[in-house]
Design goal:
612 residues; mainly alpha; 4 helices
Length: 612
Amino acid sequence: RQEDRRRFDPRDRELEEERWQKRQELERELAEEEEQREKLERREQRLQRREQERREQELRREQEPRLEQKLRREQEERREQLLRREQELRREQEPRLEKLRREQEERREQLLRREREPRLEQRLRREQEPLFEQLRREQEERREQQLRREQEPRRPRRQGPLRRRQEQEEEEERRLQEREQRLREREEDSQLLRQQQQLLKEEREEKRRLQEEERKFREEEQLLQEREEQQLRRQERDRKLREEEQQLRRQELEQELRQEEQQLSRQERDRKLREEEQQLRRQELEQELRQEEQQLRRQERDRKLREEEQQLRRQELEQELRQEEQQLRRQARDRKLREEEQLLQEPEEQQLRRQELEQELRQEEQQLRRQERDRKLRAEEQLLKEREEQQLRRQERERKLRAEEQLLKEQEEQQLRRRERDRKLREEEQQLRRQELEQELRQEEQQLRRQERDRKLRAEEQLLKQREEQQLRRRELEQELRQERDRKLREEEQQLRRREGQEQLRRERDRKFLEDQQLLREQEEQLLRRQEEQQLREEQELRRRQERERKFREEEQLRQLEEAQRRGRGWEEKDKGRQQILESGKRPFAGVPVRSSPLYEYIQEQRSQYRP
């Protein structure tokens, strides 16, 4: 096996290196083809854009007279609309300013009302202080009662665990209720304070927001004027830049045409060279494939020979195992016969020792033979596994080779078709470029005149649009201010109703708390009376249970004594009968029990009962 591996490893490495080189060459060729395809796609897109522009220019030339008349009419109408809108804006601004003044006065009145609210809150706190003081006193009384209960003398130990557990659970429940009540009161007080702080914060933010909106409104008007002036300057500058760009574009187009003609000639020369290289590479690849097929046939023949050898070796091993098993059975049968003969002649103790020794020897021999057989089987299995793995690796390598060859063929065919298509596209593109260049040079002058006219129209439309947007923003701002004012009024009304409801809930909660305290005191008194009665009943039950247990223990002791006396008389009778049986035997070793027999075990068990 090692010689086969040494013989095939160098060849496998050479094949892998050749495949790796082929794969790298294919990847380089694919990358070049991808770049050429992207260039062709960009050229096609440019051709389509130019064709579309040419059609649009033809349509414009046909529609120019009508468009000019229409544009003149639209310009006159826009000027009239601008004048009318400016007049409307002036009329609309006067009532808005009046509204803003009234809203500012209303905000000042609201601020005055909010300043009065802290005084109302102080008055509410003064009214609530007596209630809080009463609650604190009641909590202190409750704590003193609890301390008094804990300091009472403890009950005697006979008091049941059930009563102590009940007392602990009741005390824990009372503590939990008190803690929850305190937490709820603190949470409600903190919630009221947070709500008041939130209201004050919202009022300050609203005031700042209104001031900020007024400032932004003034800044927007100023920005609109500056933008109109900047737009006029920008339009003049753009017109000059477009004229310069058109001149540069003419020069670039002529330069591109010359470069493309040179590039096409170079590409045609490179294409012929690549075709010759591909032909040579294909011939080399076919030669390698024939050699690999011969090598695969040789490897298949060697594999079949190795499998036949393995089959023969396996059959021989199975035959040896069967012979060993037959021999072991014969040896075991002979050994049993010899042992039986020796047993008839030897005393019992020597016979037992010999049996143990022979049993150990047989076990050791069987274990050694089993280990040797297992070792041989493992070695054979390992050898088979290694050969199967080598065969699988070889088959996988051959499959990859065939797949790579098929991929190479498909890529070469695709490359040839792609090159032919690219050549035709380049020829068509050159023809179109020449035609378009001539057409573009004639149309650029017309386009410049049209662009200038369109620029002026767009400037007027942009100015109208900006004024309309400004008017819409002002209306939206006024509407938002009205909605915000209405929302604030509704929130203030809701806040007042919420405070009144909270005050009513607080009074109701205080009343319920006092009632619960009275009810708790009554329940505690009833619970103490029930606990004392329960304690008396438990003490009586405990005395009765102790008396029953004492009587039961006395009866159990009497029963155990009687049973021990009965068992002693039975053992004496059995020993006498056994001695009579042993004395009646006359032949030597005839009545002696064997150690492994049930009789011997029974005798040993009875003797051990009489030992001290």
